[in-house]
């Protein structure tokens, strides 16, 4: 009987230790979350045209990441102002990346062609990026500074070509044109 108690005790200790390991965030399923004013973990994404984007290769630029969907009316509402901003700012110091969320790439491609949207569109099928960025819905936009640090998060549609948006971006890259 004591041998059974000893075995149960041993198994219970193993189960408790593994549970503590998982709860501490060290086990499977652990994802590094993006936190404001902290470095954004490296990512490698491929846009719908096949170009690969690595965050580390964008150092020195302000990176604008927008999560959106073709079925989202507020997302489509902000697209013209995003396009205007993207065309206004020099690609030597600014990079816009849009991440299609819970949608079909062929819909995004057709929509982009129809309205003349030129920013890269990344089809995010696995939702890993959405989870990493703590996405609560679409549209949401994240501004990463020239050193790879998340500085701003915007929930909902914005007027990206407004004086206020340009002033916000100038905080992170003072040489942006006015």
Question: What do these coordinates show?
Answer:
The longest helix has 22 residues, at 2-23. This protein has helices at residues 2-23, 73-88, 105-115, 128-132, 163-172, and strands at residues 44-46, 52-54, 62-68, 94-101, 121-124, 140-144, 150-155. The chain is α/β, with parallel strands linked by helices. The protein starts with a helix and ends in a 6-residue tail after the last helix. The protein has five helices and seven strands. The protein has two domains: 1-30; 32-172, Glutaredoxin (3-Layer(aba) Sandwich), CATH 3.40.30. Strands 5-4-3-6-7 form a five-stranded mixed β-sheet. A two-stranded antiparallel ribbon has the order 1-2. Residues 7-30 have low confidence and may be disordered. The chain is globular and about 75 Å long.
């Amino acid at each position: 009987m004591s041998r059974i108690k000893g075995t149960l005790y041993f198994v219970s200790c193993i189960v408790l230790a593994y549970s503590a390991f998982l709860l501490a965030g060290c086990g499977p399923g652990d994802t590094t979350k993006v936190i404001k004013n902290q470095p954004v973990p490296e990512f490698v994404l491929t846009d719908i045209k096949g170009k690969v984007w690595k965050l580390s290769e964008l150092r020195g630029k302000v990176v604008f990441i927008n999560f959106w969907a073709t079925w989202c009316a507020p997302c489509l509402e902000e697209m013209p102002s995003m396009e205007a901003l993207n065309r206004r700012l020099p690609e030597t110091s600014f990079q816009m990346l849009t991440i299609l969320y819970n949608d079909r790439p062929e819909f995004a491609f057709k929509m982009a062609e129809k309205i003349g949207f030129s920013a890269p569109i990344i089809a995010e099928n696995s939702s890993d990026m959405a989870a990493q960025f703590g996405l609560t819905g679409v549209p949401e936009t994240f501004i990463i500074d020239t050193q790879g640090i998340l500085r701003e998060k915007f929930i909902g549609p914005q007027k990206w070509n407004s004086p206020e948006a340009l002033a916000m971006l100038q905080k992170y890259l003072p040489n942006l044109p006015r």
